[in-house]
Amino acid sequence: MPRISGVPIPDNKSISVALTYIYGIGSSLSAKILKEAQIKPDVKASLLKPEELNLIKDIIEKNYKIEGGLRREIMTHIKRLKDIGSWRGMRHMKKLPVRGQTTRTNTRTVKGNVRKTMGSGRKPAATPT
Prior knowledge:
Elements: E1 3-4, E2 7-8, H1 15-18, H2 27-37, H3 50-63, H4 67-84, H5 87-93, H6 108-111
Antiparallel strand pairs: 1-2
Helix pairs in contact: 2-3, 4-5
């Protein structure tokens, strides 16, 4: 199983799909990297030569932020929003949707599956005194 920048990529998939297992590389960036390296996108990852793998590693490390560096940068951006007290920062603090989605009904995944509707929990019958 070849490793690119510390991430094991699957052998049985084409290299264009296998590169998307790296955080920060999607399908379009994967195609751009392979075009720059002059490697066919439909070649299986296990069939790549070590020279080709090293070329891909070099292109990625020189030109793009991936994995830990990218995660760190995103966290600093969110921290800056929280520190200045912007609307988006407040939404991040409250763990609510940030990008303008409605929250009246369809945010069960973000809010945590809290159901506050009639009949969701029945009160026990009152005991006679």
